[in-house]
Amino acid sequence: MAPLASGRKTIKRKQVDEDEDAVPPQQELRSNGALEMLSDEEDDGDASSDDGQVDEFPEIIDESDSEDSDYDEEEEEEDDEDEEDENEEEDEEDENEVDESETDADSDDSLHIFPKAKVVTSKITNQPKTVYPEIEPEYDSDSSTEDTPNRVGNVPMHWYDDMPHIGYDINGKKVLRPARGDELDKFLATVDDSSAWTSAFDKNTQSEKPLTSEELDLIRRLYAGENPDASYDPYEPTTEWFTGKGKEEIMPLSGALQPKRRWVPSKWEKQKVMKIVRAIRQGRILPSKPKSTAKFEPYAIWSEPSSSHPPPLPAPKPPLPTNAESYNPPEEYLPTEEERKAWEAQDPEDRERNFLPQKYSSLRLVPAYDRFVKERFFRQLDLYLAPRVQRVKLNIDPNSLIPKLPSPNSLKPFPNYRSLQFYHSNSRARCVSVSPDGAWVVSGDEGGVVSLWEIIVGREVKRWKFEGKIGSLAWCPRTDVSYFAVGIEDTIHFVIPPNIDPAVLSLTLTVLAPATLPPAPTTPSPVKWLTPPSASRSEDTPILTINLPPSTGLPTHFCWHRRGDYLASVSTGGQQGGVWIHQITRRHSQAPFKKIKGAVQSVLFHPLKPHFFVATQQYVRIYNLSEQKLVKTLMPGIKWISSMDVHPSGDHLIVGGYDRKLCWFDLELSEKPYKVLRYHSRAIRSLQFHPTYPLFASSSDDGSIQIFHSRVYNDLMTDPLIVPLKILRGHTVTDGLGVLQVRWCSKQPWLVSSAADGSVAVWCS
Amino acid sequence: MASTTTTNNNDPSHSQSQQQTQAQQPVTFTTSTPYPLPSQKFMIPLGWRRYQLSQLVNKALALDRGGNYDNAGGGARPVPFDFLVRGEILRGSLAEWCKEKGVGEEETLEIEYIESVMPPQKMFEFPHEDWVSAVSCYIPGLFLTTSYDGHLRAFDYAHNLAFDRAVHSAPVTSLCVVPFPSPSPSSSNMGEGGGEEGETYTIATASHDASAQILRVTLPSPSSSFNLNAKEKATAKGNGNGKAQSLATLYLHTAPIASVSANARGTRLITAGWDGLVGVWAWDGERVARDEVDVPVPVFGGVDGRDRKRRRVGAGAGGAGDGDGERGEGDGDGGMDGGRGKRKAPANVLKSHVGRVSKALFLGLEEGEGSEKAVSCGFDSTVRTWDVEYGLCIATINASEKPFLDLSPLSHAAPSSPLSSVLAVSTDRTMCMYDLRLPSSSSSTSALSSAATATFVHPSTPSCVASSGSGSGSGSGYQAITGAYDGVVRVWDVRSVKGAVASFKVGEEGKGKGRKVLSVDWARGLVGVAGEFGVEVWRVGEDGGVGGRV
């Protein structure tokens, strides 16, 4: 674009010059906007100047008469050029006329930047010869790069407006701004220099630069609206490509009309299409049928160029045989009998070697290799798909999957072996109870026998016989008195063990059989409290008997309040709801619930608060006895609750069910269990917290007892820690019933369990 | 029946060891027996077993007079030895032991040899109707048993039931023979010389009825004993024709009494009760040396026959105990109730146990009078040493979670040193040895180091322990026997903690009876084992004519 810009500038400059000069062409320039309209005038001007030469182009006049102006302009250019040539090359002036004649002949070459060769008739030989102009090294040589000393490139030159220099030459030296005269100097320059009006201001050198004749010609062409390329000939002669001799078409296109069938729909094609349509409609052709019929086309998998993947690993080489593979190995390579057995017992994949060394005295005796086919097969597999499916062994340490629990050894003591066993003959030992001082055990069976025995020796000291099954036994938790309750059908007996301290005995007697009976309650109760007269008392008979209402059923569960005054009993099997609370001192029984939904399975007194837990088949309800209202309902999610026990702190409850689940409730938290343990394989029968040690035990129909460590923290933020400690096995399952009841010894980490096989076992730490 | 070391003379390994005599082990012998070897290094072939080692010691000491002990004739007999290698009795050959322990041939083994325990032999069997809670072999020629039916029985060596009398209405738990007090404490005469009818002994029994009794039992002379079949006799009921006289009844405890024992001079008795109390009673041979106390009388039911008698006895206690010996001659089944002696208060009550006290006994004699010590153990996992005179707890051993069931002193062979260790069995199936010697710095009540000196593990609950009689046997002072609920009586050497020296099973299988051992007693080579099955007597320890073993 730079040349263009410079061109425009040149034009401007020219205008300025013309204005200054106030020459007649000013009018032409002023009407520059209507360039086309003024072209005629221009032509006229031009024609007037170059009249003589019009006649020298007769052919052009013949062919085109409408483009006179163009033609004239060309002529004018040629004239200008010629004039310049004449100015520059004075030594060729003598040949000018000859030149002109020849230049006319080939007017194409009339404009040349470089001096063109001329054909002159040699004066010596009279033959035409080509004469090239002399080359002046200073001007004509192509040194366009040298004449601009400023090498700053195509940058806006106003950057240097404030500088004393205008750029840098090739050597990096500053090119100083040429001195520019004032307007007077300019005027004088235009007066003195005839070429001043054809010079333009060169920004690069910050000086006036005379335009060359080529540039002036270019300006003129642009000004005239002609093609700026001087070598362009709009009147070239035509070239005949398709006409003329020898250029006739061999297969001429037909000029006949298109037949009608070309644009009338084809009936036959319609028939064919309708046939396919019908077939598709009738389902004979499935349009989206997968192209399963594509034939397998073999292709050369090896012909593809190798990909960028690394080449597959070379197949493993079979190891070289060693001494052990020999048919006659040395003795030390022969396996011993133990090694042979160990080898055979191993999994084939784990064997270190896949053969056993064998010894044959001679090669003739070596039998055929029995695993030849198999071994070759595997070798082929190795070669064919060398990376077979690899058995990825799980890299998980199985120990890491086990939750981090403290070792049971660090949680000692807990019962871990059976110290002794006590047998009830031929009937199930249904219930068991340990005295509060931990020295005596009473156990009852379904034959009506209640046995009292030492916990550490196992010798039966006393035996009572009742009629009917013994449903439940519970020792009174008071330490200043000593008696226990025995539950049989519709009746609760209170029995004093033998060989107790006289002081304790007398106090017990005053509790159970006071000399003056308390006043009978005003409302008649269906429960009768009977004490045999003192004359008929003995150690073999109960000292006190509570006759529950008839058809109440068998009391299967007793629960003493911790003060030992209240006894809650749950009877099952009867028609009525069998929850009764008996108060010993007042000799009074009351049913706390008029009506209760569901069969009550178990009841419990809260160890600290006046709360009362009632477990029906699926729910555990907590009642406040003093306020007579329901506090909470726990939903263990057990189908049938069998037993429950409350932690000595009173904040936790465990519930066991016949569907093998054991639920741990944190009573401070929700009514959903904190933890559900399902470790038994059969129904849970009984469970109990140890009163002092952080232990609880659960017994099940699978004949096992499970001991858990259960640490409860005073910190409310810390969850209870429950660790399974030990599974005690030793009871046999009889008639599908296993261990029916477990009770802890209060002072020691010992457990007493009664089972359906009639045995009562003591488990010691 | 007994698993002891092999006594096979034709041991195949013996000949084999002679083949490979090049493998030898340097060994030094130490011993605490009266047969010491010079302390030098022996090169012992690795194939040797106990038999060869025992032969070596015998030959080196010329105990068998020239090696041919079969025709030695005179009194010198070869002494069989057992060999302890690093606290373990050598059972197989030395090579096996070295291989098992990974001991190379370069190390010098230190082998201690002890006199071998004879394989226990069953001597007698006294079946009982009921469980036998205690047995005593204290009196020579006589076995005393107490049973859960409340009877005290005595058998002599001829299997005769010499005495059978119901002494308590409740099960009897413990029994001890009270030596007659004599001015010289060293002579322990337990028989009183006997009157015209036979010998008289003083026996203390403890019962579930929270009382202990001191009885004077007069046994008939042996000539008057029946000459029937032993078995019939033993099972025959109520034909003991001795006399029994209740001298005193000891009322202190409010719970069953676990044990009663007397000191060696017969001047004091000590009782241990389930209520955590230990009672010390002074005894002068006739009377408990304290005033009578009034005991609240149980009034169960008021009109029960037994209680009525008891009340009557309580009312007339002053006159009942004044030595009417003929009252003990009533029928065997309950005549003792009429013969209650005086109700006596204890000389001292030792209160420190927080749980049931299972055993209390006096420690051995001490020269200085008046500083007699007792030791007791209980379910509170403590072993306490008491100063009896002042009723102070001198020292306490706190074991963790070891409810002790029984205790036995272990008097080492040196008679001059006072009793230093006790063996206690607990329900965690161990027998522990505790050192009772006080640390020299401490003065008053101080906790002894609770770590057991040695622990002996049982497969079942050991219920009772007895150490060998003091100073009588060859291996005495280091050996003890325990009886367990699995019916196995084990003989232990406290220097060998790994396993029992010998063991034998008591009670027959398949009788429908349990086999729990409840009491053992060991004196003069005889071990009385009492339990569910009755009483069995085994010969353990003293050679007793078991020859042929070196």
Automatic annotation (TrEMBL), chain A:
WD repeat feature ranges: 422-463, 677-718
Biased composition (Basic and acidic residues): 337-350
Source domain of life: Eukaryota
Gene Ontology cellular-component terms listed: nucleoplasm; PeBoW complex; preribosome, large subunit precursor
GO MF entry, a single one: ribonucleoprotein complex binding
Record note on quaternary structure: Component of the NOP7 complex, composed of ERB1, NOP7 and YTM1. Within the NOP7 complex ERB1 appears to interact directly with NOP7 and YTM1. The NOP7 complex also associates with the 66S pre-ribosome.
Membership in a protein family: Belongs to the WD repeat BOP1/ERB1 family.
GO annotation terms (biological process): maturation of 5.8S rRNA from tricistronic rRNA transcript (SSU-rRNA, 5.8S rRNA, LSU-rRNA); maturation of LSU-rRNA from tricistronic rRNA transcript (SSU-rRNA, 5.8S rRNA, LSU-rRNA)
PANTHER family linked to this entry: RIBOSOME BIOGENESIS PROTEIN BOP1 (PTHR17605:SF0), RIBOSOME BIOGENESIS PROTEIN BOP1 BLOCK OF PROLIFERATION 1 PROTEIN (PTHR17605)
Keyword ATP-binding: no
Compositional bias (Acidic residues): 38-108, 135-145
Annotated region described as Disordered, given as residue ranges: 1-156, 304-350
Name of the protein in question: Ribosome biogenesis protein ERB1
Residue ranges, compositional bias (Pro residues): 308-321
Keywords: Nucleus, Repeat, Ribosome biogenesis, rRNA processing, WD repeat
Subcellular location: Nucleus, Nucleolus; Nucleus, Nucleoplasm
Domain spans labelled BOP1 N-terminal: 160-415
Role: Component of the NOP7 complex, which is required for maturation of the 25S and 5.8S ribosomal RNAs and formation of the 60S ribosome.
Pfam family, one: WD40
From TrEMBL, chain B:
Protein known as: Ribosome biogenesis protein YTM1
